[in-house]
Write a structure and sequence with these properties.
6 helices, Zincin-like, three-stranded mixed β-sheet, alpha/beta, 10 strands, about 240 residues
Length: about 240
């Protein structure tokens, strides 16, 4: 780890599987550089210097995203499609979550700071549990409806807490969907579902893929651009 100019700490890690130098910047995780085993740390520092302009722009974008990250407190109002968040102070020793009557009830020990990392994780676990419940109810039915409407054949639909992609389609036409789709406006949820349905025919992002997707969505590229404004890992 090095402290580099005004970027702060940068983690440098040697990876036996790495074939080249790579750099990543993630919200709340900072900058990480991965290098092959035989590459020196001096070369890694030179690599960081070469990427300085890119790093500055990327960090500006990441910091803007971080401001969208919710720090829950007693006054936070938060709703999913069908549930509302309710934080309760209790005499209990440990926090716990109850999901019932369209509420995400998080019981927080009154002796703990609600902004404590562990409490924040419990709150997010409760919210994501509600999204999972809603996703299992809505997404398989909706993608089935769209498949019938546009003549696609799918095998299996699986809901996962995927934080890196909204959805994916396997070679066997099994479709994996992120429960975080429940955060999107309905037209973008439909866009993702249609995107994966088109992959049952076109397995890559070829011209034929985009032509087919554009035919059934009206303006696939515009919808894709709008979708990029949302981050799975930030809410």
């Amino acid at each position: 780890m090095i402290d580099y100019k005004d970027f702060g700490e940068i983690k440098i890690r040697k990876n036996p599987n790495a074939r080249r130098l790579s750099i990543s910047v993630r919200p709340f995780e900072g900058i990480r550089v991965t290098i092959p085993v035989l590459v020196s740390f001096t070369r890694a520092e030179k690599f960081i210097e070469e990427k300085e302009q890119w790093l500055r722009q990327t960090i500006r974008n990441i910091r803007a995203l971080e401001t969208s990250y919710t720090i829950f407190d007693w006054n936070t109002s938060f709703r999913t499609l069908e549930h509302s968040l309710e934080l309760l102070k209790t005499d209990e020793h440990d926090p716990r979550v109850i999901i019932k009557d369209r509420k995400i009830i998080v019981c927080c020990p009154k002796t703990r700071n609600v902004k404590d990392k562990k409490i924040q994780e419990i709150i997010r676990w409760g919210i994501e549990a509600a999204w999972r419940k809603e996703a299992k109810k809505y997404l398989p039915a909706r993608i089935g409806e769209l498949a019938r409407m546009y003549g696609f054949n799918i095998n299996r639909v699986v809901i996962r807490n995927n934080r890196s992609r909204w959805g994916s389609c396997s070679n066997q036409n099994n479709i994996n969907l992120s429960l975080h789709l429940m955060r999107l406006p309905k037209h973008l949820t439909d866009y993702v579902l249609l995107h994966e349905l088109v992959h049952t025919i076109h397995k890559n992002h070829s011209k034929q893929f985009w032509k087919h997707l554009d035919k059934i969505t009206g303006n696939a590229k515009a919808l894709d651009k709008e979708l990029k404004k949302y981050r799975i890992d930030i809410y």
